[in-house]
Amino acid sequence: MNLPLLLSIAVAFLLGLSTSFSAAGSERPNLLLITADDLGLQLGCYGDNAARTPHLDKLAKRSRLFENAYVAQASCSPSRSAMFTGLYPHANGQYGLLNAGVGFQLHESLHSQTLPALLKQAGYSTGILGKLHVGPENVFPFDVRIRSDTRDVVATTEKAGDFFRKTQQPYFFMANFSDPHVHGRSPRPPKEAFPTQYKGIPREPLKVGQVPPFPFQRLDHPEEIERITQYYNAVSRFDEGVGLLLDQLAKAGHAENTVVLFVSDHGPPFFRGKTSCYEGGVKVPMLLHWPGVFDSGDRTEALVSTVDILPTFLEAAGIENSRSLHGDSLTKTAGDANWRKTLATEFHYHGSSPFFPRRTIRNERFKLIHNLLAAKKSATERVDGDAAYQLAMESDGVSDATRAAFERAVNPPEFELYDLQNDPWEFDNLAEDKDHQAVLRQMKQALVDWRKTTEDPLLTEDGMKRIGKFEQRKKK
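Above: the chain sequence. Below: its structure as tokens.
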């Protein structure tokens, strides 16, 4: 066979591949990942009667709602790193906040293996609105990065609409809103820890007296209630932003060919919430709208995690994954008897200190928390200006159970065991209860097995020193 003929065959073959890939690409769905900043289960669709979230409730009615969804770590950068990599922070390197000043960032081997990188390699356009907050940021191959005041939900979603209309499909777009994160520095008393209104939204904000204490705190103090009320108004503003964003998607004509996944990066910025391993910090809302895959209004009790986001989106895009991940596609929660029976969370740092590492595991009913440096260090008493711990310790009328839970959160024993069926917000530690020792042993073994399977560096003294050194570096 002569050279010209060989070249002609090769060109025809390559053109055929190109045509085939293009055709397949035109059928692949767009992917929209929506994240809230510091939102727990304060949504109507999750049974919160105080929440005003009509747009997310509407999305829930046409999505699969995950009743037991968890973040990998209840701190912004580590949590988002798990979404981007399908790996827990202990394996991906983002142990604490990107802006902690001590060099927290993804391991170099993962720079080309993030969700936007893998999708871009497969022919997807990529865009992001708002915070990225995982390092190093310059290795994330977003074609469009929209920097905006994402608390201004009207202007922000109009910019997202421009992306939807002008970007070649298929695309991956990550929409990150500021709410309901605290607004700047959080003063005490909380005059405007969370803006009651921002650019006129919400139009009819909730007032003090309309919102109860958080169930994970049980602290009915005027100062805390004022702060919580502000928080719920920030949640309403986020909900308005989601509604406007989905309207823009529909106006672009992409509503029917877009997989939409909504999740929060962790729970509320309140004591026993954000930066903890308690349910108030690690349990989050998650909705997945996938036309033709999940039924509208479907709900599941399957144990799922934000490490499942990357493999889910790769499956939606038709991308085979050969790497070993900690997560799995959420499509397998639809009647798969082999879906996980236990689920883990963890903690290392928030900022640069304290280094107070924790590991947790839960099954259908029980949850174990292992505080790796118990009796050697204390956890933080505050998060983002919330004075709940001080209020509980100094005020009259606070129950003994609340005070005990608050004190345990700051100075915990090595192990905490909770019956989530009867004690969903973890006020009664059963680790020393004689009737629960068999459960305790079972949960301890399950946690050790998970740590070994995921190659947790904190299983060794050298690993503890290597990750703990970031705190030491800050003190110099």
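The chain has two domains: 27-334, 347-475.
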